[in-house]
Design brief:
12 helices, alpha/beta, globular, binds nicotinamide-adenine-dinucleotide, single chain, four-stranded mixed beta sheet, N-(1-d-carboxylethyl)-l-norvaline Dehydrogenase, domain 2, Rossmann fold
Amino acid sequence: MKIAILGAGAMGSLYGGYLSRGNEVWMVDIWQAHVDAINEKGLYIDEADGSVTHVTPHATSDPNEVGVVDLAVIFVKSIQTTEALEKNRAVIGEHTAVLTLQNGYGNGDDICAFVPRDQVIVGTTSHGCTMKGPGHIFHAGSGPTHIGAMGEDQSTAEKVAEALRGAGFEVDCSDKVIELVWGKLFVNIAINAVTALLDVPNGYINDDANARRCAELLVREAVAVANATGMSFDPDAVCANAMAVAVGTAGNTSSMRADTLNKRRTEIGKINGAVVKKAAELGMDAPYNQLISALIEAKEDTYLK
Ligand code: NAD
């Protein structure tokens, strides 16, 4: 399979790196030093058990060098999806499947503006990675990847699942994947914005009664919106799961806290902001998620303006 990874940062490097063992993989990224390092020395993946995986995918910042691919995997930050697809249209052909495992809600809808719905595959990943430097990542955590097509026809999603399994990923392919996308969103809603605003590690969400109250208000509101779309989540169970994740990752810095600490734009628009947007489409209000979205955007203004 010919594959382009659009956004070959921490997660793109992991998926593209593993997929390059048995497929023609092109890492497409605007970070030239990373592209050069991969082309010169290959990609080094430091595994959690201390071993090192070394792979040699192609890398470029010019999508025209790649040409049309069978599969494009989107791993830019979720707020950059549309821009990345616009700038890398050269890799998308009539039959190209596009996979997103990004965090947040609405990535699949963004991709549907570029390819037919049956070719859009959404999902979640339990892997975790960080960049160590150009051509070098740390693969901190592993777990299942869940995928499914946005449309009715799951045949392309099944082929993508096979390619991922062949590369060593544990993959489940199902037409219920959108529930899992919501499920992961709820965890991000509980943890990300609150830890970023308070500048605390994930465990604080469970340990401090006020932080926990904020997280639960946000999550319960998001569950009400999800359930209005036809889902049937139990808000108590969703809150309990989010707290369990906060406890399980107690010492970790959430990606949104990392973004604010590094003075980068966050994914708020695709996390809490996505709940506000979906609520508006349904004629509902989501004032807690609206307020926290505005607070994070105001925080971004302090360093991006
Ligand atoms: P990252 O910042 O490490 O990588 C994003 C890459 O996209 C960067 O290398 C950047 O240069 C590149 N990029 C930006 N615009 C581009 C463009 N127009 N064309 C090509 N490349 C472009 O981010 P990440 O941590 O790998 O996260 C990617 C997505 O995966 C996010 O949605 C994140 O929430 C999600 N995610 C991350 C983790 C994790 O552990 N890092 C885990 C699960 C999900």
